Structure formats: structure tokens, C-alpha cells
Amino acid sequence: MAKGFQGKLFVFSAPSGSGKTTIVRHLLAKKRFNLEFSISATSRAARSNEKDGEDYYFISLENFKQKIKKGEFLEWEEVYKDNFYGTLKTEIERIWDQKKHVIFDIDVVGGLRIREKFPDRTLAVFVKPPDINELIRRLKNRGEESDEKIASRVAKASVELATAPQFDKIIKNYDLEVALKDAEFLVDEFLGIK
User: Fold this and answer.
1) Domains and CATH numbers, the chain
2) 39, 56 in Cβ contact below 8 A?
3) Is the pTM of the predicted complex or chain greater than 0.85?
4) At what angle do helices 132-142 and 147-161 cross, to 10 degrees?
5) Mean pLDDT for all residues in the chain
């Protein structure tokens, strides 16, 4: 790892449709933060538009389980049966070796596990949608999923919303421009820029 560099970790978690990915992309574009996106590993197959090492590290189920046994993950979770997601320790090292800070767009369970492992170096932020109805509207507007899948995401969102108080900060994404400014302020503050 980069000697003398004390890399930070920025965890952004939220229910699907809350806007966390938009916020993370916005922060990555701000050069002053010196951020690099943490690419997750998954045991699921790549979709046609996804690239290995860019969208995810695609690992076979058997290989994923071997890496779990060897303790190679910072955090991992079986999201659906035989469908694992996780953060490889080597991914954090890769980013810190570049003398950059790590930013995550990650589920609430994984986000809280990362903060548990690096409590002094992690800022865990929960992105909260205005309400469940707005969340449903945003998911439907994406036009990517069936009503059944949306219903499943909304059910999961209720559980995830209950974890918000466990995070260091909560950004209410009622107005995207305000949420983006709030996110910049939090990163500035944690890095000691302001």
C-alpha cells in the first residue's frame, strides 16, 4: 500500500432509486476529491452491456466461495441464492496504491460492514428518497424492470430505510441539486478541505 498515504473510504448506500449512483458519479467528476470508484466482485454472469474489471469483477461461483474461505473479501453477501457480491481487499489496496480515496455505491449491509472494519477512515452516508411513492415513481420511470421486480425492490427498501440511523450522515434526496451540494460538503469536510 502507498506509504504515508492515509486513504479514506466514502460509502454511499440507499434503496434502489434513491439517487446514490447519480451522487457518486457527480463526486467522482470532482477532481479535488481525488476519488476512485471501488469495483465490486460478483458471481453472477455479466449482462451484455457490462465489462469485466469495469462494471464488476465477474468471478465464478466456485472461485467466489474460495476467495471467501481465504478471507480475500473486505465484505461480501449472498444477495440471492448463489448470487454473491463483495468487495475484494485487493481493490482497496489498488486504489490506495494510486494515492486516491475510495468511493462505494453499495448496499446498506455491505456499507455498514466496511465502516465497521475502518471506523476512523470511513464516512458512511445514507441517501434517503422523499418517500416510498417517489421511489416507486423513479423505479417505474427507469423502464428497466417488471412490476414484480419493482415490488421486490420496494419491499427491500422498507428494510433498508430502517438502517438509516446507523450511518454517519443522511442526505435527503428531495431535490437533486441540493443533494449533490450536500454530498460535496460532506466529502470536503471529511477530507478536511474546508
Assistant:
1) 9-191 (3.40.50.300)
2) yes
3) yes
4) 140
5) 91
